[in-house]
Amino acid sequence: MGILICITISGIIISYPEYGNYFSSTSQNGKELFWLFTSIAVGGVIITCTILGLFRLINKLSKKGLLIFTIALFVIYGISTVAITYLFPTIPMTDSFYVHDQAVGMAHGTKDIINGNSAYFRKYSNNNPLIILLYFIYKIACSLGITDLLQVGRLFNASCITGSLVLFYFAIQKLSKRETTGAKFVLLNLLFVPIIFMTSWVYTATICLPFIGGIMLCGANLIKNQSKKSIIINSAIIGVLSIVGYNIRPVVLILSIAGFICLVLWTVKDKKRFVKSAIMVGVCAVFALGSFVTTKALNNHYYTGSNGNFPLTHWVAMGLTKNGMYDPQLVKENMRLSNTDEMKANVNKHIKERLSNYNAGSFISHLYIKNGSIWAVGSLEYQSRLIGSAEKYTPLSKWLYGSKSDLMCLYTQMLWLSLHILTLIYIIRFIFNKESKYGLLQILTLLGGYGFYMIWEVKIAYAVPFVFFIIGMATLGGESVENAFAMSNAKVKNIGRISYSAVAIFSIVLMFIGAPFFTDNVMKVSDKKLTVKSTHNCLIKKIATRKRTVTQEFYTKEKFNRVYLNVACRSNLSTSNSKYKITLKNGKNKTIATKLVDSKDYTKRISDIKLKLPKKYTPSGEEKFKITVKGISGTKEAFNFGYSHGDDIDPIRGNLRTNGKLVKGDLRLTVSEIHKGSLLSPKRYCAFCVGIVLIEVITAFLYLGFSKKKQYND
């Protein structure tokens, strides 16, 4: 685990440009990359020292003060998760869209079952348990007269995230036997904002968290409690949560497996535990079996079944691509096959071919890239989870996922590095028996996560279920450093002061060197004010050859100067001869932009047709707009215009029509404000640097022992 964390640390430092905006565009030479990578490394060290300083403050709190502080942290965290659901109410996309569209339909009564013959659920039945869970929640909401079911789902997700934090808090506090440890754990979670920004992404990666937290707390209870009643109750809960959680997202079972391994190891070491361990395993197995039968019966009741589900090896094959991420070509191949057996044969062929293309060196490189794709990105790609909220654009949008978001991403990358540094320290101390043996439970769980994603398809957000474990170990690692430093002699303290001062001074030098990145790099950047993502992948065809007219209405109160229409280009685009006229009208039915599109002007396969406004348009309040695509002429079509629709979810307000006939759904479009600018103005950059220096000075006073009197409260 220590080796894997070291590999991840290297990826955290050097992976950032790929996921940035300004930095990915400007970091083209070695000098610029050196500055960026060094800044992340130095920033990670500075944040680590700041965390240790905050830990020291927590240690000085009285018992009453600690309780008030912890409650305040929970309140802030809970308010933040709920606030995100209202500030950024995301439009579901991809798998999340299908799940919610089905659950909402079942709650409204427009659908009775999950149809295994439909295009999506014929292939993907893994999300059925989540659909059934949301259906029950939405059904209750409908009975109470609540109509905005998507918001109900977001609030439920907020409760899952906050509730799991509470469960982990009690588990870690119980295992560490220190009240301060729990408070420090909650503080680090509050500082690590990407999980909070995931609140509006209602999907299995966050819904599974309470199951993991519940298993963790019950495991802690089993370790600390000796009564038979407690053993039976907690073992039963673990059995239920393991199976139900596994059905929501399989990674839940990794913690249960890690717990079983720990139980076996501890029982072998101490034979007196055998009876207690046998009772735990027996009770857990009985309730797990009961949960398995119940969940299977529920699935059979609400799902018609399918002989065309993707086999598990499908995701293994996708995991063998260069970066281990989603492989659309393999998905298309399997979608064309008639049953699971044919898919298995096709997938096995791909697995053999892909493995044969690797030698020892290239396979190690593949695993390194794959490791970085899931574990090395501190933002957890929260931006893509917020981008669907562009219909409700706020001033914060620019800083969280828009043109200024690099600052937030840089912060999360540095903090992610800091958490892994502290986690590595914890693992090293665990190796030398300086930490409680119960830490093995967290280490094995994280190791299981790493092992699982070595063979499975990866996605940046797939790290979400393991964040609490990383932060938990980072908390304990921080306490290890803190306690060791507190007991050190004056000579060691002076070495620490000199080292920290050197890092702080070097960071100031980096601020001067990095000023051009923030203030001089004037780039053309985009702020998305409204967007409709591809979900059901529907197409409007033969617009030019049949001279059709397609209109889409949308509403916005934000200024913009670009509208992009997402299209699927034909295979021989250069030989197409179709022409289109695109017109945009405002709420007063006045034309504000128009464009003639001739397919001969497009020599490459493109994904968007751009409509450029002569100047930036500022709506008068929330204004209604209408974009029209009219086919002019052509004997060979160039583009199929994509639109997204659900049976019970309408992506955005505004109707879509073809030749005046209403079409269910909305064109896949993006309304943006394109402008030139730097990441920060010189004045803001100066204020930014002053703020960092102040944090460094405060950290020095908090942790480096300038105060002679020390008090530690356990």
Automatic annotation (TrEMBL):
The keyword Plastid does not apply. The chain crosses the membrane at residues 33-54, 66-88, 155-172, 192-223, 235-268, 274-293, 414-432, 438-455, 460-478, 498-519, 685-706. Keywords: Membrane, Transmembrane, Transmembrane helix. It comes from the Bacteria. The keyword DNA-binding does not apply. This is Glycosyltransferase RgtA/B/C/D-like domain-containing protein. It comes from Ruminococcoides intestinihominis.
